Amino acid sequence: MSNYSVFLPSYSIGDDVYKEIPKICEAYGRKAVVVGGKTAMAKAREALLESVKGSNIEISDFVWFGGDSTYENVEMLKKNPVVANADMIFAVGGGRSVDTSKTMCDQTGQPIFVFPTIASNCAAITETTVIYDSNHVFKELYFPKKPATHCFINTKIIAEAPSNFIWAGIGDALSKEYECTFSSRGDELDHTNLLGVDISRNCVEPLLKYGKKAYEDAKAHRVSEELEQVILNIIITAGLVSVLVINDYNSCLAHSVYYGCTTLEKIEKNHLHGEVVSYGVLVMLTCDKQFKERDRVYSFNKNLGLPTCLADIEVEEKDLDKVLDKAMETGDIKHVPYKITREMIYNSIMDLEKLM
Ligand SMILES: [Zn+2]
């Protein structure tokens, strides 16, 4: 029998949640350095400094992460004496900056605490980081040995961020349940995968129920119960699934469609990851003939201004060859209950066009 460990993420959430920092972080030392994006650090700075006032924790500096999640930036941070001498790292920001600190701390062994300032993905609690090359092109996934020590989700700071992050975050989180249950369908699941797949079944309903109100509140920069539920869904539910299941179950056809679309310049320039993924969800549900679910998500997308047809993401029919070439190459559709052909994806896209 194999011996193995599972490290589950832990987190705190609330509109004044940074006040929990001293209690939770004290056991790990005294000196903390904040590493993050410039905007993110500016937004969180005051609340962070206030939270450690009069405690045993001292924030010794705020350090820019370098602009992208690259091995070069990881090395640059490791060489910074302020960072190297810190007892713990406070990683502040969105996906790329948090991933940079996660990769670095995996290599240095420093405890890392994560402070997401937007809710557009689940990077704050996953065990995976995305690495880019110096031209900002996807390079590879990196797998730290465990997730961050703790994650502090400040709903007030997240509500103050531009609302398109939540909007795209909803689109990305929509994919988790459908992709995970589809790609694991028919498999004999061991304990950890069974837990992960079952958690994924809790992704869609809360989004359909609270998504619209949460997006309205995000636009008005207002913390609400609905916004909190949606933030938890995007960061925690999707993140827990990703920590528990094998990589094969983590993404599927909706993401293949997204990667296909990234071959087009307009997608890279004008559209967000989760936005395009939410269109990919419609393609996937059509392909799998889950028409009832497809129609539910279709109306939801329409209602939220998420895409439902090619024109919404500025893709033209003549671009489809390029999109499908890339989509068919992706590993995301390798582990599926039946073979997904190029024709099946094309027909699903065309079926969606007819729904307009
Ligand atoms: Zn995604």
From TrEMBL:
Broad class of enzyme this protein falls into: oxidoreductase
Involved pathway(s): Polyol metabolism; glycerol fermentation; glycerone phosphate from glycerol (oxidative route): step 1/2
Ranges that cross the membrane: none
One Gene Ontology term of the molecular function aspect: glycerol dehydrogenase (NAD+) activity
Pfam hit, one: Fe-ADH
Record keyword Oxidoreductase present: yes
EC number: 1.1.1.6
Gene3D superfamilies in the record: 3.40.50.1970, Dehydroquinate synthase-like - alpha domain
SUPFAM superfamilies in the cross-refs: Dehydroquinate synthase-like
Record keywords, A-Z: Metal-binding, NAD, Oxidoreductase
Chemical reaction(s) catalysed: glycerol + NAD(+) = dihydroxyacetone + NADH + H(+)
Sequence ranges assigned to domain Alcohol dehydrogenase iron-type/glycerol dehydrogenase GldA in this UniProt record: 11-139
Keyword Thylakoid found: no
Organism: Clostridium algifaecis
Protein name: Glycerol dehydrogenase
